[in-house]
Structures are given as structure tokens and as C-alpha cells.
Amino acid sequence: MASSVPVGGQSDYRGRFAPSPSGPLHNGSLIAAMASFLDARAHHGRWLLRIEDIDMPRVVPGADRAIMHQLHAMGMHWDEEPVWQSQRLHLYQAAFDKLALAGDVYGCACTRQELPPDGPYPGTCRHGLPEGRQARAWRFRASQGVDHFIDRWHGPQQQDVSAHVGDFIIKRADGLWAYQLVVVVDDGAQGITHIVRGTDLLDSTARQRMLARHLGLEYPSVMHVPLLLDDAGRKLSKQNHAAAMDINRPLDTLNQAWQALGFEALAAQDIDTFWTMALERWANRYGQRQPDPVG
Ligand code: GLU
Prior knowledge:
The chain is of the alpha/beta class and 295 residues long. The chain has 2 domains: 14-86 and 228-286, Rossmann fold (3-Layer(aba) Sandwich); 89-180, Glutamyl-tRNA Synthetase, domain 3, CATH 3.90.800.10. It contains 8 helices and 10 strands. The protein has helices spanning 27-42, 63-73, 89-101, 161-164, 179-189, 205-215, 250-260, 271-286, and strands spanning 14-17, 46-51, 83-84, 105-108, 137-140, 146-151, 155-160, 168-171, 194-198, 221-225. It has a 3-stranded parallel beta sheet with strand order 1-2-3. Helix 2 (63-73) links the parallel strand 2 (46-51) and strand 3. The protein starts with 13 loop residues before the first strand and ends in a 9-residue tail after the last helix. Glutamic acid binds at residues 18-20, 52, 183, 197, 201. Glutamic acid (GLU) binds next to loops.
């Protein structure tokens, strides 16, 4: 039977879900998956799956397949071949080289113990490595000034990256590419127009916008959706052992994420109906979705 849930479509909208395969999806990660999926479908756009397996020490073998299985079980189907960041290292190197050539990157010798626990990077190695020290990590030279942008969930935002974070790491001391760099390179390379993800990443957005500017990439529009918190008020995450989401009771699982997005539970009898109902409500609140063209 043909599904009534629309497939990825005709508009220029390109969204993505970008899980880190450090374990199966839990109810918290489902919220970002659901919101990005609905927003793409509501805008007649495409929804891409990108496996963010760049932080190799945290990757759990088989977690990528488990995530894909979970998404399918929830009726969430991506529109293009998924990509794995571990297979795109050449793209990150090319972006790094471009930034380095422009003088925007420098080697940093500081260990974590040498840095203040919070607050911006003090700029110790900005003008050259201290005597006798070697570069461990590589930092991007943050430009000064306040960046303003609109978040579709939280409204107007601003951040002065140089004051708030300072020069930030784009290649880590263990030789791995940092999340901030790879996410910008991939969103650019994949032509992503809309980012919908968890609010924990709102604070990274100004850094990513800055990198995109320096790489000559257009930065997508952003929407940062709520996180599920555990009883102690911490983000539900694989690190604090959130349980995998229950695919045996998909409607309950879907409704739980849906309510976390601020909607009333849906009395749907099956997964397709859930999505059809959710799409209509999402579009009413966040835009688009007129009837599909006939034929
Ligand atoms: N891989 C990141 C995570 O699982 C998400 C990255 C993003 O959406 O920008 O938290």
C-alpha cells in the first residue's frame, strides 16, 4: 500500500539529521530527528542522513546500522544515500588548508590543564608557540565582533565568538578533525539550507557561521529544538546512559518526542497517520505545506 507520508520533494530545501554513532538513538535524539524530518517534509524538501563518526574513540561499531534501523522503524526515510564523515577526511583537510593559507589557523601547545576551566581561550599561542613547545592542536583565529542571527525556535541571537569562546580548535590534539569544522564543511558540501537540531548546539552556531564565512559557504537557517533532560536536569545522552528508544511501541515513542516539541499527543492508529497528522500541525506552526500537486 502506498504511504500517505510525502517523500522528499521538489523544493530547494535540504535538511539533515546528523547523529553521532556512539550508540543507538534514545528518546532525546529522536526529538531532533523528528523535528528535522517534519520540517523538511513540511517544506517539500529533502531530508538527509549524515553519520557523524568523526570522533572515532566514541564510535560504537554497529551503532550506525542500529540508528538507521530505528529511523526506518519509526517511518522516517531519508532521501539520498547517507554519508559517513569518516569517509570524507579529504574534504576536511582541504577546508583546513584553505583556512591555513589565509592565515586563520595556528598551532597550539596548551594542554587542558594549562587552560582556564571556563571562559575563552586566553590566546597563549596566538602569536607563536612558547619557547620549546610544540603544536598539539590547531586553532581557528576567531575574528572580533558580534554575530547576529535568528533561530527559528529561540528567536534573535547574538554572540561575540572572540569574547565568548576565543580561538577555537578545529584539529584536535589526538589528530582528529573537530566537530565545529566538519559540520560546517559537510553542511556546505551537502548544500544544506536548514539545520534543525538540539538546543545544546545553539552555542556553537556563531562559531560555525564564522567558519562558513571564512570558507566562502552560505550558512543554513537554524532551529534548535528542546532537549530531554534527565531527573538531574542534564541532557539525556548516551554518555549518561539514556535507554535506547523503544521501537516496539512506535506510536508511544513518537508521541513522547512530539509532546517534547510542545504539541498535544496525536490519537493516531498507525505510524503513517501519525506523520500525516504531525506534518499538518508542524506546517501550521512553522510554515509551508500546501497540498501536493496532483498527478
Ligand atoms: N552529531 C551531533 C550530535 O549527535 C549533531 C550535529 C549537528 O546536528 O550539527 O549531537
